[in-house]
Amino acid sequence: MSSKDYYSVLGVSRSASADEIKKAYRKLAMQYHPDRNPGDKAAEAQFKLINEAYEVLGDAKKRQVYDTVGPQGFSEGFDPGGFPGGFSGGFGRGSGSFGDIFSEVMDGFFGGMGGSASGGRSQGEHILRQVDLSFEEAALGKEISIKIARWESCAPCSGNGSKNGKSVTVCSTCRGTGLIRVQQGFFIVQRTCNACGGEGRVISEICPACSGKGRISVDRTITRSIPAGVTTGMRVRISGEGHAGLQGGPAGDLYLDISVRPHPVFVREGDDLVVEKNLTLTQAIFGTTLEIPTLGAGYPLKVDPGTQPGTVRRIRGKGIANPATKGIGDLVVRLGVEIPTRLTREQREILERYAEVSGDAPAAGSSPDGGLFSKVKSIFD
Ligand SMILES: [Zn+2]
Ligand SMILES: [Zn+2]
What we know:
The protein is α+β, with helices and mostly antiparallel strands. The chain has 9 helices and 15 strands.
């Protein structure tokens, strides 16, 4: 991964200005240019990498995406095919390096649109959407419907942009590559072919339905089940539901960035569902059965006599499903004891009597006039 960190490739900090990046790129490009290092494979590879890095960091938009979905954005991975209902895993499939995955995303987000430099057949762009779920929806799974506007292949021309799908010829200027090589002083530079706009082909009669783009914009509603147990920061991939590819290329994917709202009662810790519950003084002393809220029906928890504050009870398998491991966490109940702050006269007398028979020493200053209990009395009675 480190060799693919574009910032270190260009030798600049993550906060470098556009100008600094440009300067660093130029300097390195001159140094490693193949014309200056004939036959040097290492220099050639480095030159390619420098260009790759500049392609991203030299473009404000791409740089922003790189900074956002950069290495940390890919740390959350799922098992391929791990999800029911058409999910085919998220980022981090197999042991694919960050670089491979990232280039896939970059190609998807930025390639293709309006004729990429490579021309011809290319994959459609990916689509990224934010999905907000309640705590329960995330824990139990939820079928969601997302509205998207996407490019789909134009039916009348079968996506090739020519009227009736005919009258397409290979561009004679670039011989179909979409690129031309131009001598520019010391260097030979590759440029997008002007004759075909990098498409590598020329259409003599343009398809009226799509104006020759081969794709038309369509509003779609995509319905899918989000698997139980997703958490904030996870990214779910729905394969092939992004924009249509160009000239028969595969469609991009739809990515869903999951965000889960907090819950007033439950907290999630790993795969455990955590609930805090307070016992009354007498419940803690005599024991009781508590109804503990869970994501389904309440769970009757038997509390032993003499339960201490801070006691933690763990009920196995009543927690949250893990979409990657398929395991289920526990229900964790943290028990507290509520000390009453308001006492009736009768309650106070009973507790004073309790203190007396227990041999508890009266608190300092609890003399009949002006003692602790008198103060409490004056406040509450
Ligand atoms: Zn051309
Ligand atoms: Zn068309």
